[in-house]
Structures are given as C-alpha cells and as structure tokens.
Design a protein that fits this description.
With 183 residues, this protein is α+β, with helices and mostly antiparallel strands. The protein has a domain of 75 residues. It is built from four helices and four strands. It has a four-stranded antiparallel sheet with strand order 1-2-3-4. Strand 1 and strand 2 form a beta hairpin. The termini are far apart.
C-alpha cells in the first residue's frame, strides 16, 4: 500500500493566488453576451418591450404624483382662503360691536335713526348701516324699547360680504332721574 503523495499545488493549477495574485473564485462567471442571449436579447441591452413598460411605469408614477400634489396644493389654498374669510368676519364683528358701543356712549340709539357711512380707523374699509325703530310686539308699539339693526359690509374680491346684528335697546331719548348713577 504504497500511496503516492499528491503533486505540488503549482502542478495541479490549484495555486491561483500564486499564479494570478487573486484567490480562486467559487463561482464561474459566464460572459455577459451569454446571459443576454439566455434572457431573450442578443445585443447585451434590455429588450425594447421591457424598456417601454419601464417608461410607462415611470409615466404613471409621475401622473399619480402630480395628481397628489395638485390635491395638496388645492387644499392648502382653500384653507388659506377660509382662514382669511374667517378673520374678516371676526374683524367685522369687532367693528360692529365698537360701532354699537360708541353709539350707546354718545347718548344711545333713539327710535327713527337710519344712517349709513364708513367706519372709523382701523376699520375704515368697512361700511355700516344703522336702523332703529320702536319695538312692535303683537301689533302694539312699545316706545320704551327700540329694535336696532346694525349691518357691516365689505368687499372681498368681486363679492360683497355682510354681517348684521339685531338687538333691543332701551329708548334713551327720555332721560331718567338717576342718569348720573354708575352701574
């Protein structure tokens, strides 16, 4: 049972590191041309039908993105416009309150008043209308209480916006005996 020793690595071709300077590879790589031929194309590039489908996928993705961005931008613009309109109504309510309180401090709002005009600064872009008449309840007129309507209007684009207030105030044309009393 004499066995021969195996030949040296250099004679077997197994010493790739010594011959090429790189370790032996575990897998043999096929040339690129043979891979493309196996996939149906012989030129080394993808087939034209595959390129067309990738282009369609990219186009569909861009359209979906554009529709989504359009919806988001439209929602932001709508939110901005709603916020601005809400701010104008709040400001108009404050201007309306100031107008009524100012009239009350100037001596009240007597029956038969019907006036229009512009508000004073800082609300000078608002227009107002004030109307007052004796309260008419079930056909009977009450001279002690006035039915007061105050409206504020402003331009917003091509539209005219209006906010109105209707309230009942005691008639102040007849001074009471304790007009100097504080409350």
């Amino acid at each position: 049972m004499n066995e021969l020793p195996p030949p040296p690595l250099s004679q077997r071709g197994g010493d790739k590191l010594a011959q090429t300077g790189s370790p032996p590879s575990l897998f043999k790589l096929a040339p690129a041309a043979s891979i493309c031929e196996a996939n149906g194309g012989g030129s080394g590039v993808r087939g034209s039908s595959e390129q067309g489908s990738m282009l369609m996928e990219a186009l569909v993705a861009v359209v979906i993105l554009a529709v989504g961005l359009t919806a988001v931008i439209q929602a932001l613009v709508s939110a901005y416009l709603a916020s601005r309109t809400s701010g104008r109504y709040s400001e108009a309510a404050l201007a309306l309150e100031n107008a009524v309180v100012e009239k009350i401090y100037q001596g009240g709002i007597a029956a038969g008043v019907d006036e229009e005009g512009r508000m004073e600064k800082p609300f000078d872009w608002y227009r107002y209308k004030l109307a007052s008449q004796p309260l008419n309840f079930n056909g009977a007129s009450n001279d002690q209480i006035n039915d007061v309507t105050v409206s504020v209007a402003w331009d917003e684009g091509a539209k005219i916006k209006t906010l109105s207030l209707q309230t009942f105030l005691f008639n102040t044309s007849a001074k009471s005996s304790n007009e100097n009393s504080e409350f």
